[in-house]
Fold:
Amino acid sequence: MIPIIFLLQKRYRESKTAMFWVGLCAIIGMSLNRVNVAGLATLSLTKSVYFPAWTEWVMTFGILSGAALFYLFCVEYFGLFDGLGRERVPDWITPAQFDHTDWKTLYFGGQRLGSAQLYSLVFILAAALSFGLVSDNAVFGIAPEKTPVENPRWIEASKIEGDSTATFVIGSDAGDPDPTGSRAPVMMLDGNRDGRYVLFDHKQHESRHKDEQSCALCHHMNKPYDRCTGCYQCHSDMYVTVNVFDHDLHTTKLGGNAHCSRCHADGGLPKLRENTTDCLECHRAMVQPGARVKPRAPRIETRTVGYMDALHGLCMGCHEETEKSQPESYAGLSRCTHCHQSLPDLGEPAWRQYLWTGASR
Structure:
């Protein structure tokens, strides 16, 4: 765009210095465009670094060299510039107007404006470089930090029976466990290992849903050759949405690029998620019948919410329904402190804010 603006003005078209900078701007602009589209945009979206192979460098320089040779051939044999064959007569230059020893004057015009143009160029380049080095948070807003999730741990805790529900206590929370309480194996859900764990009575949930197919209520989707796939295997980040589809793994398993048509059946369409074969056509047993969480029809969504949102969305919905249907037996089942027993009761609004502080770092 900058070269076009300058070329619209006759005084710049007739200036050799201006034409040099117009041509340089065009070259730099096209180069930065390719760096942005093929480099920075890929880095921002995939969070991975790509460096061209030596064959790609050779091809690129080969194309540029071929274009330069073709241009020089046209200049030499088709008379593009009439003055090339004539003897060059030096122009008369008034020393007061042009100082060939001053590089600012040589590249930026007369002595009066040379410094101003130079410092303006430095300012523009510095501003562009500063903007390019700004973090994503400053450009797109603050985003949760990536927090990988680890698998739950099985521990033994003292189970203290209450009027409607049970409370679990482990030694590090309350000194010696209550001797009157029975010992029970429970799952410690602390995916990011920050101490805000939840003790989950898996056995109690199994006894409530004795049907063999009841596992699908929570384990709503299984990986290939797996049964009751754990939440953390797909919701692998505590707060950030992740993509569960491993393209490299599928490429390797299917025999490389020669089998792209297995998923990209129509080669004439762009290779987008919407134009690919649905996962269920190959992985028919992935979605479990009777699951509380159902895929967005008619396709499986390959991007999953964070671990915290997944567990809250699954558990809280069920707890609210159970408390509403049996208020006498399960009073307070939907409150935060029913599951988060390891931390004090701050009141429901404060508790929900407290639980979210980890996601707003």
Residues 263 and 277 are 5 Å apart (CA to CA).
